């Protein structure tokens, strides 16, 4: 019976599917389904297991939507991403996500009426307002038109001095596009200067080298940002951001937007134009949590021992959203995040289901924190165990495309064989993390290793008489080139080179079920053609022998006689 005692958590037994079958739940990060050509790293990779599942049991293999409104994003043009994907997978429902919530708050102006913005205004009239975040149209962590609107709105709301601390992208958008975004930003800041607002870029750096680390993989990334944004110290000083990007790229032509080293913008006397100091206000304008949580801790925590902050300015700090609902970080924010409660993890714990979750650092939080509705911690110390395998640090993953896939698989097999867990859940990051490097050959290697890891876990599932469910959180590796949106033809740049795509896609993702524990006659329904990731939770709750919560998106399976 449910430990929580509350009736609302009771999940009735499924009328046909039995309890007690061990479930191996595998999330392939960045693994979509696309036309099989030379730029589809998954199609080119050696993936006998995934091929076998697709071809031998069509009633147990299908596609799911993993982008746009199906995962709570504003439009069908919005590519999927890990945050919205794992939210949907774990919560079994579709929640309007950060991108859409901020759009609405900016359109209605409510963003300036909330407690968060009022708190920032306490820094007026003398405090500088600082804006820190990803300069990009990707819509995964931030979107430029939101920064643009926020700049105007903050000037309207009386901030007289504004400084922008830029993180360049090149991961969710075309490599090299940072120059365009900075040019546009400089134009928008010029418009503010014409209105008498002292508005400038104050520092910069690439998102993978500066500030935007996650899951505490490398605090050095956050420190480099802190030194440039707060202390005004960095290995490079320039008079303008454009000059910085151009010079740094001339010095190292292979440098890509994701990895620009930190730099500080200085005036004619060599003085930083905008370090964050006492009495200032700060907004981190990324709406997505995972790559802002560490910086938020550095700006907000009194006691902080991850690196020497040297000087901790007394500022009014607000996040675009609250980034961690469990620890209430940051305390002040402009837009309330989606309240994602009653997730599958919480239901399963209340019904006595024991869960083991594992991945390597770079995706560990996806398969725990994000899966549980952007909440840190476990629902139960006895019924759950989350295991993190340390990721390689300080490298671009095309250097070691196998990553820790086999180690994750071995951990999962051990957990399955231990008999201590009813559900073993893993995320295999290779398709996505290597896909983001844009290195096609390395991504092919990464996907080949993923298939090997799946093989190990399916063999273990076989041995324990269990069930497997394999799916993905969004596309990436299945398309590594920019295509003509009409013809689908790969596009070349002016020099005749193919334009490599490092970003996610809007492709559907596969889902496959099977294993000796799966009841004969259990198969995918054919009456849910537009089903998406939010239908997966009801599906695995059924496979564990329970009816799903009434308000969850419907289960994908039926049992035919
Ligand atoms: O790396 C990330 O932060 C995003 C891309 O910006 O990828 P994912 O959503 O797969 O984590
Ligand atoms: Mn992902
Ligand atoms: Mn990704």
UniProtKB/TrEMBL annotation:
Keywords: Glycolysis, Isomerase, Manganese, Metal-binding
Keyword Zinc appears in the UniProt entry: no
Catalytic EC class: isomerase
Catalysed conversion reaction: (2R)-2-phosphoglycerate = (2R)-3-phosphoglycerate
Enzyme Commission identifier(s): 5.4.2.12
Matches recorded under Pfam families: iPGM_N, Metalloenzyme
Metal-binding listed as a keyword: yes
Superkingdom, natural source: Eukaryota
Annotated ranges, domain BPG-independent PGAM N-terminal: 102-324
Gene3D superfamilies given in the database record: Alkaline Phosphatase, subunit A, BPG-independent phosphoglycerate mutase, domain B
InterPro entries: Alkaline_phosphatase_core_sf (IPR017850), BPG-indep_PGM_N (IPR011258), Metalloenzyme (IPR006124), PGAM_B_sf (IPR036646), Pgm_bpd_ind (IPR005995)
Cofactor annotation: Mn(2+)
Family (UniProt): Belongs to the BPG-independent phosphoglycerate mutase family.
Protein name: phosphoglycerate mutase (2,3-diphosphoglycerate-independent)
Organism: Sphagnum troendelagicum
């Amino acid at each position: 019976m449910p430990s929580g005692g509350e009736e609302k958590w009771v999940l009735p037994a499924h009328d046909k599917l039995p309890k007690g079958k061990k479930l191996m739940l595998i999330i392939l990060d960045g693994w979509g389904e696309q036309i099989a050509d030379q730029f589809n790293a998954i199609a080119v990779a050696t993936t006998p297991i995934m091929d076998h599942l697709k071809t031998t049991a069509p009633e147990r293999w299908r596609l799911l939507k993993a982008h746009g409104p199906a995962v709570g994003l504003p439009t069908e043009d919005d590519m999927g991403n890990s945050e919205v994907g794992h939210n949907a997978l774990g919560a079994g429902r579709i929640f309007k996500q950060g991108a859409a919530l901020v759009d609405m708050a900016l359109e209605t102006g409510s963003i300036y009426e909330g407690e968060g913005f009022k708190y920032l205004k306490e820094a007026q009239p003398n405090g500088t307002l600082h804006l820190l975040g990803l300069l990009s149209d990707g819509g995964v962590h931030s979107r430029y038109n939101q920064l643009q609107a926020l700049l105007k709105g903050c000037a309207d709301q009386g901030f007289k001095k504004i400084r922008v601390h830029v993180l360049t992208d090149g991961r969710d958008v075309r490599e090299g596009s940072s120059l365009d975004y900075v040019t546009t930003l400089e134009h928008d800041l010029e418009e503010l200067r014409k209105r008498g607002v002292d508005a400038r870029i104050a520092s910069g750096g690439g998102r993978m080298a500066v500030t935007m680390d996650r899951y505490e993989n490398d605090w050095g990334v956050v420190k480099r940002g802190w030194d440039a944004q707060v202390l005004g110290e960095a290995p490079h000083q320039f008079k303008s951001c454009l000059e910085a990007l151009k010079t740094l790229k001339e010095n190292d032509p292979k440098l890509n937007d994701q990895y620009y080293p930190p730099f500080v913008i200085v005036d004619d006397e060599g003085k930083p134009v905008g370090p964050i100091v006492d009495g200032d206000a700060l907004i981190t304008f990324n709406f997505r949590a995972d790559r802002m949580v560490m910086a938020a801790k550095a700006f907000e925590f009194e006691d902080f021992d991850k690196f020497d902050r040297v000087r901790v300015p007394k500022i009014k700090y607000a996040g675009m959203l609250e980034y961690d609902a469990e620890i209430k970080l940051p305390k002040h924010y402009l837009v309330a995040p989606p309240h994602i409660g009653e997730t599958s993890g919480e239901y399963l714990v209340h019904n006595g289901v024991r869960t083991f979750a594992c991945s390597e650092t770079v995706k560990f939080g996806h398969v725990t924190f994000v899966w549980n509705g952007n909440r840190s911690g476990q629902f139960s110390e006895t019924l759950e165990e989350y295991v993190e395998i340390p990721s390689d640090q300080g490298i671009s993953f095309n250097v070691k495309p196998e990553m820790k896939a086999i180690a994750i698989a071995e951990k999962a097999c051990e957990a399955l064989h231990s008999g201590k867990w009813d559900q073993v859940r893993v995320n295999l990051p290779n398709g996505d993390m290597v896909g983001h490097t844009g290195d096609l050959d390395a991504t092919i290697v990464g996907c080949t290793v993923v298939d090997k890891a799946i093989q190990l876990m399916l063999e273990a599932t076989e041995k324990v008489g269990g069930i497997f469910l394999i799916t993905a959180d969004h596309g990436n590796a299945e398309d590594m080139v920019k295509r003509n949106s009409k013809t689908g033809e790969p596009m070349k740049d002016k020099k005749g080179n193919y334009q490599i795509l490092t970003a996610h896609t809007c492709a559907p993702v596969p889902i496959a079920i099977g294993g000796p524990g799966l009841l004969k006659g259990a198969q995918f329904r054919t009456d849910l053609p537009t089903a998406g990731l939010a239908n997966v939770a009801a599906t695995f709750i059924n496979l564990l022998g329970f009816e799903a919560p009434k308000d969850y998106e419907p289960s994908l399976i039926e049992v035919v006689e």
